[in-house]
Amino acid sequence: MYAIRLGDDGAEMRPLEVWHAEEFLAHLDRGRAFINRFVPFGSRATDLDSAREALQRYADLRAADTASLHGLWLDGKLVGGVLTLNFDAAAGTCEVGCWLEPAGTGRGLVTRAMRVLIDWAVEERGIHRVEWVAASGNTASIAVARRLGMTRDGVRREAHLHHGVRHDLEVWSLLAPEWRARATQPEGRWAGR
């Protein structure tokens, strides 16, 4: 299976599959409070069986060509991941997302991995519109959308109930022609972290 190097710092992006359940659970346990501040990602994976179920759900979505899940490893340790959701190649649309435990933050891992994922979606799968949805308070996630060259389309006010609090959701997007245009700029689409 593939492992894509994301730089010279030991960072890699690989498939996150059912057989990673034990490693996935340990990762979630290390970062659960941090990861779940704005999204419930992995919140139901609390033991080995439920971790397997969560990964199997994404494997089934991958088989249906409606989502994909990729882990981010730093020096051989799973610290987060990126994913596609609502992937619709026929319509040319998808949503992308991410999560990290604290040990993976501040290194540009998500931005670097997302560049690979978006490039694949646009160039290999013909996706025209890539969306990023983040709680307004999740400034780190919004910063990634900006670094990727996305445009803020708007805010869905109090659209997300999480931990008893209603969060505004910001919708950001990137169109295939914009992504390709970045490649022709002097810094290219790979500039920055």
UniProtKB/TrEMBL annotation:
Limits of the N-acetyltransferase domain: 16-172
UniProtKB keywords: Transferase
Cited InterPro entries: Acyl_CoA_acyltransferase, GNAT_dom, Ribosomal_N-acetyltransferase
Pfam annotation, one family: Acetyltransf_3
First-level EC class: transferase
Entry EC no(s): 2.-.-.-
Superkingdom in the source lineage: Bacteria
Methyltransferase as UniProt keyword: no
Molecular function terms from GO: transferase activity
Protein name: GNAT family protein
Higher taxonomy: Bacteria, Bacillati, Actinomycetota, Actinomycetes, Kitasatosporales
